[in-house]
Design a protein that fits this description.
The protein has four helices and two strands; from the N terminus they run H-H-E-E-H-H. The chain is of the alpha+beta class.
Length: about 90
Amino acid sequence: MLQLDGLAAAGNTVVIVEHEMRVVAVCDWVIDMGAWSGGTGGKIVARGTPVDVAKVSHSRTAPYLAAALEGHSSHVALAQSQNVEGLAGFTSQA
């Protein structure tokens, strides 16, 4: 995450293909592709902020992303209450 955060902080556009919801939860924009693989895949199922995508009822990603967002929020709230800078594995963007 430090490398990705560094690239973004330097003003770069960073495009990643990611399945780790903790990483997806801190992105600025998400494009959820699916719904399956092969000929039945490759369609945009949802797009928007992580919060927007987590609310899309027909997205198979949404419940996992919602859970990651809840976990991220609790980590950020805890760090802010303790005045901690730079959470390991999380950024403050979500």
